[in-house]
Amino acid sequence: MADMTTGDLMVDGNALAGLLAELFGADVTLVPAKCAACGEVNMMGGLHAYVQAPGSVLRCPICHAVMMRIVQTDRATRIEMRGIAYFRFERSSG
Amino acid sequence: MARPLDWQLATVAGVHDETDTVRSFSLTLPNWGGHRPGQHVDLRLTAEDGYSVERSYSIASEPERAPEVDITVERIPDGEVSPFLHDVVVPGDRVELRGPIGGYFVWDAAQPGPLLLVGGGSGVVPLMAMIRHRARVGAMNPTRLLLSSRGADEIIYREELDRMSATQDGFEVVHTLTRERPAGWNGYSRRIDEAMLSEVLEPLGREARVYICGPTALVESAANALVRIGLAPSQIRTERFGPTGS
pTM for the complete prediction? Predict the structure, then answer.
């Protein structure tokens, strides 16, 4: 583990699917999100995720800017997402 | 039927050793809502003092096996959950889990066309759900699994993969061994690299859908190599496990 870098800790947004579904009420791994820093649109499941810290961080896979931070304590969940310009949720027809 | 985020009690129906450090657990879930190949479950252990810990495990079995679901777990020596599963859990025990979770790393037979699966070590697990599903429903789409393992004894699902590979239904497994090779080994003998991916991809063509799962370094390297070969990032889905256990 001596030569481990931060990069080795990275997983995919898909790894946070359970937590994200708790927060959004549905699976959002296929929901496109636009990076507020570079403008690239990627599915939530394809963002880069760092889950080893006390909180979880989602970064843009293109420019690596922080898009979302989630911190959970015993009493509350705090979500910061000023790095996301928008989400695009499909409306189910019918 | 339980919703994916409801915790439910699963009963361990069977335990099966895949390798010295990897074990599969068959779980019976009376309220299972069904899954798609590639999805995972969250498993929760709670101690008597209320301390609880959660881990995600890929589902190894095909959806057609419901209400039974297999997970395959590598024993991480200093882990909190996997040693408990390996050393303590026996058939008849119950564990708490929820799922299926994650729609991103999913393939099923409704998506036709050539398929390239790339796995490193226990990264083969969600790919196995896809392969088993494919065989179960009789799909014939050209499919190749490139599986990197440290040694022949550490190849997870080896017999089943080799058996399925021999059935002429369009599925083929290609092994590479990175550390120890048995005498007479004629497969690849190095880490996955661009030249290897190019050779394995060749019969499938550049339109193939790609799923890569394994330690983060392997996934990064394979995904980048495939983009250099000419595949579009949108053709490639990844599931990174984080650092390797070793």
Answer: 0.94
Q: Which residues of chain B make contact with A46, given a CB cutoff of 8 A?
A: 104, 237-238
pLDDT tens track, chain A, 94 positions: 344 456 778 999 999 999 999 999 999 999 999 999 999 999 999 999 998 878 999 999 999 999 999 999 889 999 999 999 999 998 876 4
**Backbone torsions φ then ψ of B137, nearest 5 degrees:** -90, 0
Q: Which domain holds residue B237?
A: 115-241
Closest Cβ–Cβ partner in A9, A17, A43 for B242:
A9
Question: Which CATH number characterizes residue B97's domain?
Answer: 2.40.30.10
Single-letter code of the amino acid located at B203:
P
Q: Do the Cβ atoms of A71 and A54 come closer than 8 Å?
A: yes
Which tokens in the block code for residue B181? 């090779």
Of A1, A46, A51, the CB nearest to B104: A46
CATH number at B130 reads 3.40.50.80
Last residue within a domain, chosen from B101, B129, B149: B101
Q: What is the ipTM for the molecules in this complex?
A: 0.87
> A70 - beta bridge partners?
A56, A79
Backbone angles phi, psi at B49, to 5 degrees: -85, 5
The full DSSP string for A9-77 is G-EEGGGGHHHHHHHHSS--TT-EEEETTT--EEEGGGSEEE-SSSSEEEE-TTT--EEEEEEE-SS-E
